[in-house]
């Protein structure tokens, strides 16, 4: 096997207060068996969950994982036998049954290897990546085994809302639910999600939710300068534009392509200038089903555009804007930034509905009405 440079996980950025709270809970043995870390994408939720997993496993914790013991070293190198990190993966081609589970596990190990080599991994927006049923079967099989070296087995499941493959076949999520309903005493499950609204309500009701807020902008900026190879001014503009989402700056979010930009531009123009009838007509042109995929990607582009416009309105240099969209909606340049931030939240709500595979017609109708009301105020 070829030698590889070992780079341990990057440090947790900007969650000091939450880490202190979690440490206190761990020290008094009160870490709940099932947690959901929820918050915007790219702010380090999975990194935080892995940190908590290290803390739980550490042989000599000192208000944090000691970083020196065997357990900590294995955890840092993503090799701990009792810390199981799962995340959405693309569907393997042309395989079924056990072979499919094996292929998915191979893909997971390969991805772990890539993340080990490059701690600034990004989950490029593969809309088709999911936590498929065989992955959940793998998790459940591991959960019934005794921990290999630690006191407990910790499962970190990133982007957990991707466990709902389709409204018509929620098997993966239901299988996972069984794990949460009958947890072994030595099993901890930490889920993360930027769209908790898309999780099955039955899963949500069995986890304790931990709200993760973005890191302070200066800390995110410093991190990008020190670890991301960016200049201070560039990093500063990027963290303001993304509200501290290091993952987004590093390419977490997908571009969506030119079609998505044209479509996002049309929606915005209609919200800003259209009449109620225009808005209803535009919404009626959307299909009544199939909100995941391209439609969700378009909403991502729309949200980013509005957030960019908010940054520009707040004084960030114009270079941050996508001229293809905002030049068509010149009114946005003169809107108060708070109003634009408010508008971006409406798009976020729409995106949550879309990731739950809602009805695009209805989602667009509601979104346009909300945006129009926000822009008019
Ligand atoms: Zn340790």
Short structural description:
This protein has 377 residues and is of the alpha/beta class. It folds into three domains: 16-213, P-loop containing nucleotide triphosphate hydrolases (Rossmann fold), CATH 3.40.50; 217-253; 256-376, Zinc Finger, Delta Prime, domain 3 (Up-down Bundle).
Protein described:
The protein has 377 residues and is α/β, with parallel strands linked by helices. The chain is built from 16 helices and five strands. Strands 2-3-4-1-5 form a five-stranded parallel sheet, sandwiched between helices. It is globular, with a radius of gyration of 22 Å.
How does the SSE layout of this entry go?
Blueprint: H1 16-27, E1 34-38, H2 45-57, H3 70-76, E2 83-86, H4 97-117, H5 133-143, E3 153-157, H6 171-181, E4 187-193, H7 201-204, E5 208-211, H8 217-227, H9 232-241, H10 246-249, H11 257-273, H12 276-284, H13 294-313, H14 323-326, H15 337-355, H16 360-376
Parallel strand pairs: 1-4, 1-5, 2-3, 3-4
Helix pairs in contact: 1-2, 2-3, 4-5, 5-6, 8-9, 11-13, 11-16, 12-16, 13-15, 15-16
């Amino acid at each position: 096997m070829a030698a590889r440079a070992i780079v341990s996980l990057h440090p947790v950025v900007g969650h000091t207060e939450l880490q202190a709270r979690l440490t206190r809970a761990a020290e008094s043995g009160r870490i709940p068996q099932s947690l959901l870390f929820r918050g915007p994408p790219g702010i380090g939720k999975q990194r935080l969950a892995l940190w908590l997993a290290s803390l739980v496993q550490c042989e000599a914790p000192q208000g944090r994982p000691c970083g020196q013991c065997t357990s900590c070293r294995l955890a840092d190198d993503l090799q701990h036998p009792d810390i199981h990190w799962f995340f959405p993966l693309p569907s393997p081609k042309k395989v079924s049954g056990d072979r499919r589970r094996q292929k998915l596990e191979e893909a997971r190990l390969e991805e772990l290897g890539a993340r080990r080599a490059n701690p600034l991994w990004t989950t490029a927006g593969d809309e088709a990546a999911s936590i498929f049923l065989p992955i959940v079967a793998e998790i459940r099989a591991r959960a019934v085994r005794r921990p290999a070296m630690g006191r407990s087995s910790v499962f970190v499941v990133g982007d957990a809302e991707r466990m709902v493959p389709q409204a018509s076949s929620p098997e993966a999520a239901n299988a996972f639910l069984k794990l949460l309903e009958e947890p072994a005493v030595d099993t901890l499950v930490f889920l993360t999600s930027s769209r908790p609204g898309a999780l099955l309500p039955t899963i949500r009701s069995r986890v304790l939710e931990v709200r993760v807020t973005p890191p302070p902008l200066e800390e995110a900026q410093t991190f990008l300068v020190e670890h991301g190879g960016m200049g201070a001014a560039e990093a500063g503009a990027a963290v303001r534009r993304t509200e501290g989402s290091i993952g987004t700056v590093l390419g977490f979010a997908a571009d969506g392509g030119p079609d998505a930009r044209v479509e996002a531009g049309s929606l915005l123009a209609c919200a800003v200038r259209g009449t109620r009838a225009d808005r209803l007509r535009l919404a009626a042109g959307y299909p009544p089903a199939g909100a995941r995929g391209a439609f969700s990607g378009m909403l991502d582009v729309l949200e980013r555009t509005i957030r960019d416009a908010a940054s520009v309105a707040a004084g960030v240099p114009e270079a941050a804007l996508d001229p293809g969209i905002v030049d068509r909606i010149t009114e946005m340049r003169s809107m108060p930034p708070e109003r634009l931030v408010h508008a971006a939240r409406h798009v976020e709500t729409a995106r949550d509905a879309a990731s739950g595979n809602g009805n695009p017609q209805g989602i667009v109708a509601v979104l346009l009405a909300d945006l129009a009301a926000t822009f008019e105020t």
